[in-house]
Amino acid sequence: MAGxxxxxxxxxxxxxxxxxxxxxxxTELASIKNEVxxxxxxxxxxxEWIGRRYYExxxxxxxxxxxxxxxxxxxxxxxxxxxxxxxxxxKKRSAxxxxxxxxEASGVAKxxxxxxxxxxxxxx
Length: 124
Known about the structure:
Number of strands: 0
Distance between the termini: 90 Å
Structural class: mainly alpha
Helix content: over 70%
Largest sheet: none
Order of helices and strands: HHH
């Protein structure tokens, strides 16, 4: 019977060592995976930086390999500016409409001096 308990003890010890080694391996693998992920992110940031600098320096006259992307960026920037102007126009129109409603609600006529002064204010 002593041999049985000895064998069980050895088996438990062996399995414990295997579990510790497995946990250690998993920890090391997670650390490696995290470092790889961090390095890949840094590479992407560097690629983005290179692309941004290339566009800033040569975007007006890019190498033909990059022409389409540079032209697309320029077109998108122009569209963003156009949308910004449209948004500002809508804000001003909305603010102007609110001022007109407030003036009418307070009994001030549209042709009154107060209303004209409000029309000239910037409501953004």
